[in-house]
């Protein structure tokens, strides 16, 4: 019979639950929308003190307009040969200043509410207490556990991405603390995402006196938007979302300019490239004579795919979940996270290991299922210990040196 560890950590985490909630309330009641540097800095200060109390060495990295990013390192008893774990979370939210005052942390039975309570301040708190449970059980059979908490994930991690990539190259296993909608669900794959700016140039004319002399950029853009929507049929599994439409605003002028943004997502890089080719073809053609289109692509996060190494991690997670009475399901998701960045470096990564909740990005409705702090925290602690315990290499094959 396989040895499991998560059940043993369940009891320890139950003892921490009230303190976990108190600290969670403290963080939730601090505004930390992306770019709200004061709030992000305050939160990082609390996290630093709590992590240092656990014996971690903590450094803050300047994130410019996004505030500091925190890196905490804990060395185990096997430096240079034991497993090196990288745990990733974020403290920024999508909410405007004043949201914490308008909707402070509150608990209603088994639910807790507040801005960022599930996305993802509860995951950050859970990680700290999973680490505490591991340490208090005298577990040290690892090379290093590194935790990184950034303040810009909701904007795509523009300032923390280089730091995340650097840390990923120093690790063996990535564990991302994004939330989940059910205790049985984790994430083994995510779509990649690109964005495009589509600009149309036409010809202005008086819309009443000489409309025939005009070439409407808006009408041409409308034709192209319909064509883009039809790509969903041609490229199954690839999604196109058109948004942020704009044009010249005078009502008595045939518009000579129009633009839109397009978000494209796909589970494979091949899907993103097929989308790029299809959009170029749409841009090259015109329905309104005399108009021209200009398409600008900005590459985003690459797809995070379920590689054999990732599926090996899923198998270990299932073993630990069964000890907690959970039949774990690993899903592919359309949303992106910092797991995409870790996988881009070649680091085998599991995502959605955080607590259970929902209504993310909905200020008055975002919620955490409180019991999941303990349950999923025990799963995380058991998973880390199980992966370290499965010597010499739980991922199969030869030992892999640090990636460069």
UniProtKB/TrEMBL annotation:
Coiled coil: none annotated. Keywords: Carboxypeptidase, Hydrolase, Metal-binding, Protease. Signal peptide: none annotated. GO terms for molecular function: carboxypeptidase activity; metal ion binding. Residues 189-283 form the Peptidase M20 dimerisation domain. It comes from the Bacteria. The keyword Acyltransferase does not apply. InterPro entries: Bact_exopeptidase_dim_dom, Pept_M20_glutamate_carboxypep, Peptidase_M20, Peptidase_M20_dimer, Peptidase_M20A. The active site is at residues 92, 153. Transmembrane segments: none annotated. The keyword Hydrolase applies. This is Glutamate carboxypeptidase. It comes from Thermogemmatispora aurantia.
């Amino acid at each position: 019979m396989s040895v499991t560890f998560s059940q043993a950590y369940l009891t320890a985490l139950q003892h921490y639950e009230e303190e976990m909630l108190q600290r969670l309330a403290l963080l939730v009641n601090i505004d930390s929308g992306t770019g709200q540097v004061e709030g992000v800095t305050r939160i990082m200060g609390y996290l630093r003190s709590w992590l240092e109390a656990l014996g971690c060495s903590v450094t803050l990295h300047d994130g410019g307009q996004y505030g500091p990013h925190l890196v905490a390192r804990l060395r185990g008893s096997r430096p240079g040969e034991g497993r090196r774990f990288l745990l990733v979370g974020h403290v920024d939210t999508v909410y405007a200043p004043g949201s914490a005052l308008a909707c402070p942390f509150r608990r209603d039975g088994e639910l807790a509410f507040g801005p960022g309570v599930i996305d993802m301040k509860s995951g950050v708190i859970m990680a700290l207490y999973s680490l505490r449970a591991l340490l208090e059980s005298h577990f040290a059979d690892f090379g290093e556990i590194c935790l990184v908490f950034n303040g810009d994930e909701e904007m795509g991690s523009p300032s923390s991405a280089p730091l995340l990539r650097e840390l990923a190259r120093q690790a063996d296993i990535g564990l991302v603390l994004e939330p989940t909608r059910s205790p049985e669900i984790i994430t083994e794959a995510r779509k990649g995402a690109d964005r495009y700016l589509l600009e149309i140039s036409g010809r202005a004319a008086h819309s009443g006196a000489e409309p025939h002399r005009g070439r409407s950029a808006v009408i041409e853009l409308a034709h192209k938007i319909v064509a883009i929507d039809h790509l969903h049929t041609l490229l199954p599994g690839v999604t196109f979302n058109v948004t942020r439409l704009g044009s010249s605003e005078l009502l008595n002028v045939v518009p000579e300019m129009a633009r839109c943004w397009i978000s494209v997502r796909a589970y494979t890089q091949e899907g993103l490239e097929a989308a790029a080719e299809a959009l170029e073809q749409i841009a090259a053609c015109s329905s309104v004579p005399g108009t021209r289109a200009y398409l600008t692509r900005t590459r985003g996060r690459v797809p995070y795919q379920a590689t054999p190494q990732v599926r090996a991690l899923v198998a270990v997670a299932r073993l630990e979940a069964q000890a907690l009475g959970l039949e774990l399901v690993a899903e592919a998701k359309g949303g992106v996270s910092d797991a995409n960045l870790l996988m881009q470096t070649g680091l085998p990564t599991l995502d959605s290991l955080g607590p259970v909740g929902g209504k993310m990005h909905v200020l008055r409705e975002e919620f955490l299922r409180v019991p999941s702090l303990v349950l999923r925290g025990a799963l995380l602690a058991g998973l880390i210990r199980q992966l370290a315990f499965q010597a010499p290499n739980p991922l199969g094959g030869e030992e892999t040196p640090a990636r460069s």
